[in-house]
Design goal:
Radius of gyration: 14 Å
Number of helices: 3
Largest sheet: 5 strands, mixed
CATH class: Alpha Beta
Number of strands: 5
Oligomer: single chain
CATH superfamily: Uncharacterised protein PF08960, DUF1874
Order of helices and strands: EEHEHEHE
Structural class: alpha/beta
Strand order of the largest sheet: 2-5-4-1-3
Number of domains: 1
Length: 109
């Protein structure tokens, strides 16, 4: 499976396997589009982030507040804010645009 997430947290399925190796790579928008062109599941649980990602990538990234468990072979595209927000702070799309972020590719091995 390929997932889009609004966090760098890797929710792996420790019930299926007790140990995983994970590959992480900082990627650009073009690489993210290429990976997501194969189909994906959105696990973006923040509406403004889903809207911003949709605009940045030119792909509809639905707001979808679900819990996932990544397994061996799964891939994630992670929207990673470089700034730690104050507790309870929810940003608008406009506020998100002003912050620095990275797109991170993860591969669960």
């Amino acid at each position: 499976m390929i997932y889009v997430l609004n966090t760098l947290i890797l929710p792996v399925d420790f019930e299926a396997k007790k140990q995983y190796e994970v590959y992480l790579e900082k990627i650009d928008i073009e690489k993210a589009k290429e990976v997501l062109s194969e189909g994906f599941i959105s696990a973006v649980g923040h509406e403004a982030t889903a809207k911003l990602l949709s605009k940045l990538l030119g792909i509809s990234i639905p707001y979808n507040r679900i819990a996932i468990k990544m397994r061996e072979g799964d891939i994630g595209i992670h929207f990673f804010l470089k700034t730690r927000l104050p507790e309870g702070k929810i940003l608008s799309e406009e506020e998100l645009r002003e912050l620095e972020y990275d797109l991170i590719l993860s591969k669960v091995k």
